[in-house]
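May I ask for a sample protein chain and its fold as tokens?
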Amino acid sequence: MENNTTTFQDVTQVVNLTEMPLLPVEEQVITIFLTMLICGVGIAGNIMVVLVVLRTKHMVTPTNCYLVSLAVADLIVLLAAGLPNISDVVAFWIYGYTGCLCITYLQYLGINVSSCSITAFTIERYIAICHSIKAQFICTVSRAKRIIAGVWVFTSLYCIMWFFLVDTNETVYSNGVVITCGYRVSRSLYMPIYFLDFSLFYVIPLIVATVLYGLIARILIMSPLPSHLNDRGGGGSVHRGPSNSTNQANKGAVFARKQITKMLAVVVILFAVLWMPYRTLVVVNSFIDPPYHNPWFLLFCRMCIYANSAINPIIYNLMSQKFRVAFKKLCKCNWQHEEKAAKFNVPMYYSVMKNSSHESNEPVTEQEEISCQITNRCNATYDEASTLSISQ
């Protein structure tokens, strides 16, 4: 505090003879606009990730289970850190003592769970690619769910300490009273906690990810495909019939495995880059006095944190064809359901039949057929592969 500050017996209340500090109008406008934009996109995107995995049977894989955990954690960060920042800009702290405790707890819970989820799917990818035989027994959906439950229980218990470390502070100025949510302990006491968080949920996950993705890259990039999978039309031996179909399926599986690994690697890199400004600031402020609190740099650090929680669904859409198709189908099915609800008062039943008159060999999967029968709203068409019959 400044020299003109007097402290009463109640440590949560101080008197400052100066006027209430107010943020510049341009800083308020930029903060509110960026926060609403990033949080709006992030909340919508992470909700879509959760919905497409839970509602689409073939999307329920071990990796996607970890991505759902990451999406839920990012939602908590955006709701508990992003949205309260809007009101804090214009009206200081309005959520009271209970809100201070709960919001702080949820912020660190979401941050720590997201870090643990990234570490979990990195290890899962390493086992799936570098130890493919063991992966058949280790990398299962049921095991992924148990690991996710353990992550949430561990981080929930770990973050309980924040209930005892934060408190509301009331400062009386000459023109009003300001209530803030801050730490109840001195800076020297909570710095070790910050360094513990810094090590457990940033440094260690990045070290693990760097080592494991290096091993994965050695397998995927440096190890060539078998010669029979590298044969292409016009060169070498030409495979026909079932053998050619098998080779194409193998190539497709290898390509899909590389794509999902690249996507997850991008998620890890963005996590490292977008969290670096804030983590660096905390470390630097631990050794300088007074700490560096430039308002524009603090705003930049906050926006990077919010962007990290909002950008993952965009990465999935850009780099994963399965997620891209699932996102489109989710939006299309919701729109068609609303449109048909106004036209039909009785349930519709759809059946998919193979059209033998077409030359395409693309099969209609059982999962797609069951999906349309259960939802009663997907008006899907299978190009050159199926016809749609409707009965009531």
Q: What stands out?
A: The CA atoms of residues 150 and 156 lie 10 Å apart. Residues 241-285 form the longest helix (45 residues).
